[in-house]
Input
Amino acid sequence: LMLRKLLLALFIVISAEAWTNEQLIESVEKTCPPTVYKCPKPEYILFKSKSWSWNEQAVKNAPTAELFRRARHLNEQVADLLRDTYCCSEGPCLALCNIFEKKEIDLINDFPANGQDLLDLHLAELEPHREFIEAWLRSPNEYPDSRGRVPAELEELFDDIHKHQHLIRRKLREQKLRKQQIF
Output
């Protein structure tokens, strides 16, 4: 009898919901922010005219919602589960949220293979990034990190490469011609 009471108490504790539906919705919204090119998967989105919102009922009724409500702690594993279930991060479903994949220019796509060529230009516009590029070239396996994130310095470098691409291209052409002894 004592064992049954203990098991019943344990079952109640284990099956008790730890998180509310409101916390679920808030967590899903924070896990899939449009600012990092994420939006709801088609089954979790509602449209009102040209804007969209989360289909809260569908979010609450998903099998993952029950797992979330029973989770002891909100940790990276729970966030990954929410992201995998509810978030769209590539392909046509991003267009539903008016998020379109950005095609990077070749100078950015070719990084870090072109890193030394960029350094060799000695452009004032890229000098603030010299130390970062050199560190990247010395230890390329450190980037991106284990979660696929890249440092802010890389985004800043790419912004500057994009901003000064015409100058960089001209200088790279001149450098190539000098190496071929044509210029």
